[in-house]
Specification:
The structure is a single chain. The protein is built from 14 helices and five strands. The protein is an alpha/beta fold and about 350 residues long. A five-stranded parallel sheet has the order 3-2-4-1-5, with helices on one face.
């Protein structure tokens, strides 16, 4: 079932084709989502299945069939033509349910459209009924499945390690930041996907670890627990009226979780220098520490002082320098054009 069909309202009747008759009998095209566990169907779907005179499915391996049979629903594995179905349904006012395959039933629906369009046929009432439809985030299941197949079958991806992919994580994060700073919505959507790929890829590699395996579900579960714990004003009894209150909750619960000996713990020292300096300054300021600026020879200490000053004024020094660098790039291009 595709995402568009999944968004249809359950039990909503499809528009009658132009030229259709008054309607005798009922033909239901029942769609299901492969992203929902088989057997989990909506109540209108179960009603239609239990009251139908015939239930048909062209796919003998359809994942819903064992569950329907277990529930006492008789399913005919057959693919009748539109003509055959209309001739069976209309005379007796019968109801038939066709359980559609993952690819849909284009031959059947095309045939029904031709019969209805002729204006000479008495047609049954036609209805598209989603038996199960995707919840928000359902496409993430597709991503996990695709990544699993790639890991198993791709000669390059199957031998990658966390260390192999580390550089790509950094690159994708910078490309995401660039899309945000440039306000490019299409690029933002794509780069978010590339960052998500890194998460799913690393989780799939971790799943193969012989000593300490974990999966993407473990990653998501850990994140959910962290978010629940750090938002007591949302999921608990504490109150937070302002963003500052929320930040205080976050810092307090984070400190309880980490039990660190220094505010500098957990700061990645391999990050770009300006960002590192600003992060250290932020931690020191939040902790209320009065830290004298170190001094020494060279421009590094001057840059450190500028980064700390920027952080104290609420300016991201990395973003500020990137903006200035882009202006410098434009100036270089303009100079090249003049020289050319």
């Amino acid at each position: 079932m595709n995402a568009d069909a999944a968004d249809a309202t359950p039990a909503a009747a499809a528009p009658r084709p132009e030229g259709a008759g008054t309607g005798t009998g009922r033909l239901v095209l029942l769609t299901t989502s492969h992203r929902v566990a088989p057997g989990l169907l909506s109540w209108p779907a179960w009603q239609a299945l239990r009251t139908a005179d015939r239930v048909l499915c062209a796919d003998a391996d359809h994942p819903q069939l064992p569950y329907l049979r277990e529930a006492g629903v008789t399913v005919e594995v057959a693919a009748p033509t539109a003509r055959e179905l209309v001739d069976d349904i209309v005379p007796g006012g019968r109801t038939a349910v066709v359980l559609t395959s993952a690819d849909g039933e284009s031959a059947l629906t095309d045939g029904l459209a031709r019969l209805a369009g002729s204006g000479r046929e008495t047609m049954p009432d036609l209805e598209l009924l989603p038996g199960s439809y995707d919840l928000p985030g359902a496409r993430l299941l597709d991503l996990v499945q695709v990544m699993d197949q790639i890991r198993a079958e791709c000669p390059w991806s199957s031998i990658r390690t966390h260390r192999d992919l580390a550089k790509y994580g950094i690159e994708e994060a910078y490309e995401l930041v660039e899309a945000i700073e440039e306000g490019d919505r299409d690029a933002l959507r794509e780069e978010l996907g590339d960052v998500l790929l890194q998460v799913v890829f690393h989780a799939r590699i971790a799943q193969d670890d012989p000593d300490a395996p974990f999966s993407v579900d473990d990653v998501a579960g850990t994140l959910v627990e962290k978010l629940l714990h750090r938002h007591p004003h949302v999921f608990g009894d504490e109150a937070a009226e302002t963003p500052e209150d929320v930040k205080a909750h976050w810092l307090r619960t984070k400190a309880e979780e980490k039990q660190r000996d220094s505010v500098t713990e957990g700061i990645p020292l391999a990050q770009p220098g300006l960002a590192l300096a600003a992060k250290l300054a932020s931690r020191a300021r939040t902790a209320g520490l009065d830290v004298p600026m170190p001094s020494g020879p060279g421009i590094g200490y001057e840059l450190l002082s500028l980064a700390v000053r920027a952080e104290s004024e609420g300016v991201d020094p990395e973003a500020a320098l990137r903006a200035a660098a882009r202006a410098y790039r434009d100036a270089v291009v303009a100079a090249e054009r003049r020289a050319g």
